[in-house]
């Protein structure tokens, strides 16, 4: 009755139609984002769908899934799966069929993990999926039906639709309003645009500089070229470009889908912080999304218990725009517990006791 089909063998229009229709799916399920994710180093796409052969091969579930190989010792430790967005199933499935499809998905991921020597699978569910935004009661982790161990966290989400522009301004923390006013005194300007190849070149230059300042490895340029062409052409991305009188200070990218937006990636000039470019860009983007009629803006994963350091700074920035804490459901399945346990100890040791 049901069959598993790799995304590469599935009609793209049918796959994306399912992503657009399913209330448990968000932008991470779209072909454009999966194609872009495949541009990361040591990453292979193994996404699949489940089709109902008794109903003209109608897609009843889509599962974004990539395997990420380690930089070293792949033959010894293997890679891990990432399912950003997690399995998305049709809300029209009867209860008995729903359970059957869930079992098929779980069994197929396990089969792939064995054949590819994958040691674990990390799942996440986007806080902006319609299914989660519409609930008004306690709601379990959607991944609990797939045998995962809960590793959920939280994210700052701003409700735009319920506030006029004045209300959004008043909802900003004092720190943020102060930064925005300072940016205005500094003569900053912000343009909200659909990104293109020209902006991609500018963004990548800033991305390299940002990575150098933070001692992290940059993504391949092909990844951003995919974002600023295929993803942007599909209407799934907008960029806020902030400048002063001399320099391009920052480019903030927002993922747009199902009348919601996610603060996605940012790259900035060395002077952006002191000139308050990122605060200013966020406020101008909030204004733009409000005027466009969007309902929610996710500002990013929250770290409310961080006492100090980089995580506290990130949390304070995201919190300052007036959002509320929403569940960010996550989970994982470990297929090689001994090996994964050893690697986790090594990760904690390398990071000075903080898990990565």
TrEMBL record:
Report a single Gene Ontology molecular function: aminoacyltransferase activity
- Gene3D superfamilies linked to this entry: 3.40.630.30
Name its GO BP terms in alphabetical order: cell wall organization; peptidoglycan biosynthetic process; regulation of cell shape
Where does the BioF2-like acetyltransferase domain start and stop, copy by copy? Answer: 176-301
Return any one Pfam family short name: Acetyltransf_6
Q: Which UniProt keywords apply?
A: Acyltransferase, Cell shape, Cell wall biogenesis/degradation, Peptidoglycan synthesis, Transferase
**Family stated for the protein in its record:** Belongs to the FemABX family.
**What protein is this chain from?**
BioF2-like acetyltransferase domain-containing protein
């Amino acid at each position: 009755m049901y069959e598993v089909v790799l995304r590469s063998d599935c009609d793209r229009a049918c796959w994306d139609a399912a992503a657009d229709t399913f209330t448990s799916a968000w932008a991470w399920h779209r072909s454009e984002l999966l194609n872009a994710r495949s541009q990361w180093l040591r990453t292979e796409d193994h996404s699949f769908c489940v089709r109902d052969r008794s109903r003209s091969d109608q897609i009843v579930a889509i599962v974004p899934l990539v395997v990420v190989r380690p930089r070293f010792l792949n033959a010894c430790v293997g890679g891990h799966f990432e399912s950003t967005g997690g399995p998305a199933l049709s809300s029209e499935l009867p209860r008995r069929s729903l359970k059957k499809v869930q079992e098929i998905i779980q069994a197929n991921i396990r089969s792939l993990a064995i054949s590819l020597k994958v040691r674990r699978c990390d799942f996440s569910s986007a806080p902006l999926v319609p299914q989660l935004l519409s609930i008004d009661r306690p709601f379990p982790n959607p991944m609990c039906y797939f045998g995962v161990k809960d590793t959920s966290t939280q994210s700052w989400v701003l409700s735009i639709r319920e506030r006029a522009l004045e209300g959004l301004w008043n909802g900003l923390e004092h720190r943020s309003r102060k930064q925005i006013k300072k940016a205005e005194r500094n003569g900053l300007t912000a343009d909200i645009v659909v990104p293109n190849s020209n902006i991609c070149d500018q963004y990548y230059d800033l991305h390299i500089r940002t990575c150098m300042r933070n001692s992290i490895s940059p993504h391949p340029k092909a990844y951003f070229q995919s974002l600023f062409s295929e993803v942007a052409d599909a209407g799934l991305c907008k960029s806020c470009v902030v400048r002063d009188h001399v320099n391009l200070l920052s480019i903030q990218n927002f993922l747009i889908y199902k009348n919601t937006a996610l603060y996605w990636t940012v790259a900035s000039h060395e002077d952006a912080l002191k000139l308050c470019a990122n605060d200013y860009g966020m406020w101008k983007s909030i204004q733009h999304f409000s005027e466009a009629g969007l309902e929610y803006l996710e500002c990013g994963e929250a770290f409310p218990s961080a006492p100090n350091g980089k995580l506290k700074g990130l949390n304070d920035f995201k919190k300052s725009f007036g959002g509320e804490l929403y569940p960010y459901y996550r989970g994982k399945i470990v297929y090689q517990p001994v090996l994964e346990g050893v690697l986790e100890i090594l990760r904690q040791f390398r990071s000075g006791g903080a898990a990565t």
